Amino acid sequence: xxxxxxxxxxxxxxxSARDPAPRHGEVVVRVAAxxxxxxxxxxxxxxxxxxxxxxxxxxxxxxxxxxxAAVTHVRVGDRVAVEPxxxxxxxxxxxxxxxxxxxxxxxxxxxxxxxxxxxxxVPERCCWPAPAGVADDDLLVTEPLAVVVRxxxxxxxxxxxxxxxxxxxxxxLLALQVLRGRGARVLVVSRTARRFALARxxxxxxxxxxxxxxxEATAGAFSGREGVDVVIETAGTAGAVAHALALVRPxxxxxxxxxxxxxxxxxxxSVVRREVTxxxxxxxxxxxxxxxxxxxxxxxxxxxxxxxxxxxxxxGEAFAAHERPDSIKVAVRIS
Length: 335
Ligand SMILES: [Zn+2]
Ligand SMILES: [Zn+2]
Prior knowledge:
By secondary structure, the protein is α/β, with parallel strands linked by helices. 27% of the residues lie in helices and 29% in strands. The protein has helices at residues 38-45, 92-95, 136-139, 142-154, 170-181, 196-201, 215-223, 238-247, 268-273, 288-296, 315-322; strands at 2-8, 11-16, 26-36, 54-55, 59-67, 79-82, 85-86, 106-107, 119-123, 127-129, 162-166, 185-190, 206-209, 228-233, 248-256, 277-280, 306-311, 329-333. The strands form four sheets. Strands 3, 5, 6, 9, 10, 17 and 18 form a seven-stranded mixed sheet that branches. α6 links the parallel β12 (185-190) and β13. α4 (142-154) packs across α5 (170-181) and α4 packs across α10. The radius of gyration is 20 Å and the shape is globular. The N and C termini lie close together (11 Å). One zinc ion (ZN) is lined by residues 37, 39, 58-59.
């Protein structure tokens, strides 16, 4: 099969690789369409070290073409979105259902070979059947969508509440739509106004660029009270955490989905004084079906987020496109 193999920072080569063979409980998925994300980009540049050589890529949809022994839940021919993290299944966290928190988790496209290849081998339990009638191109962001479906659920968002999303990247623009689907009014906050026209098209009632002025005043005007009921943070920076805490009202909730790779000062005086609930939300547990249901129902539109498309042979251009200011989600068409 053809695969994009990373041999070192920025050393990505299209090569012929051995077809993966499924072992016990595994299936081989022929990749149809994949998305490129910030994690892939940081690995490609070398910012995030991994063991080389490696096939990157973890956001994808495809068709099961081969099943190993003891595979019972999926069949050859099934079209599936793949949950690209699998837990050990044996530790106390896994046994109590918190498999997203397992300390021995395996990440597809990081710890084992991923989807920037014609075929990829994964445990069958990672495969979630795709709804009929929804195009591969609409499902290639199911993985990031599952992240924000979980975040919004953990924020216990209710109809009529005021919400803010921090960050207007693909996660932010998906969170906005999931919140709208829950009946919340949404303010989108970002460093720049670049994506605000799209955010409004996708349902944002209001937008605020950080340079526009104090966030507290905007949150107050938008909510008609001391701040918004709930904030979903998607940017994963120290600044974004501070912005989330500035937007929320006393007694409100902040859900953090980003993983800040830098020291993150938090004014805990203000957290206690205002009884703010801060909740971490780590990837997903069982949110893939709900994510795909939202796309099938038209509640979440994913296609406007896909700004660039490349064939596997042009994957070098796909990585270059990821850093362009007009890029939101770069897609790679594999087969
Ligand atoms: Zn990702
Ligand atoms: Zn475990």
